[in-house]
Amino acid sequence: MRVTAPESSESMSSTSLQGVASPTYLHGAPNGHSDAPPAPHGVVAAPAKGHEGDGSSQADFLQIESIVLNLDASLRVHSRAHFFSWTQGLLQSLIRHDLLVCTQCQGKPPVYRADGFSMTAPDPSVLSDSFVRDPSVAPALLRAWEERRFQPVTVDAKTSSFAAGGFARELERMGATQLLVHGLHDADGRAISLFTFACRPGGVGPRQLYLAQLLAPAMHAAWVRTQATRAPGGVPEKAAGQGVLTVREQDILKWIYLGKSNYEIGAILKISPLTVKNHVQKILRKLNVVNRTQAIGKALELRIFTP
Predict the structure, then answer these.
(1) Does the N-terminal or the C-terminal CB of the chain have fewer CB atoms within 10 Å?
(2) What is the pLDDT of residues 38-48, one digit of tens each?
(3) What's CA 6's distance to the chain center, in Å?
């Protein structure tokens, strides 16, 4: 299994949030003289004063702004739909990926529970299920991460120990075989969460490794909040929209979410496009919205279905 790590884990682990937010830390002082620690891997230092016309300073500022916006967005995550919108939207500006698998590691030996998020895979839950069902995937990724002293690592799914399994085959079908792996561990060194970004080959470099390390605590906190939505009595809340739509209407809404037209949905469900149109009109009325886009947003908000 091919596993790679940042060229220098020491420079990453010593980086602070204060350093990320401070242009002085990222840029350094003119002529190379600075008491601040060196910039982390993947962050381009700004040119010395008098040579800022090449746009490097603006690029650095935009990167810092994107990091801050993502950290702020993570604080607004309180449901699975929120987490999906953040990771498959704004977070893509920092770490571009085709699939994100979030894994909880519980107990010893660990028991894994995974959840998948993707805008390109038709059904991310199939991928997260295969991630857990294949007994070699999660342990191999966890072992690679632990061997690198809990630093972000990349794993090539095509040459990994689980290359012959269903999960790796699905990744190869998607064309996203380069895995960026990072997580969090407790005080005893036991993993509590693991985040696996499935990216296109060549899409992960030192910058993405650094950003994964920076964002992992925010991702963990946000994802845990989505798991902890409970009613005051301690009983898990029921979906606010439970029972609003029929099973057939929910099926049609899911295909709408995947971008299918009435004609395509009719062919998939073996019903006429006119019947699909009638169902769509009922969905809009029941959700009190005026178009398909609003219907999807309302359904996610009410947890009628999950991506």
Answers:
(1) N
(2) 444 443 333 34
(3) 20
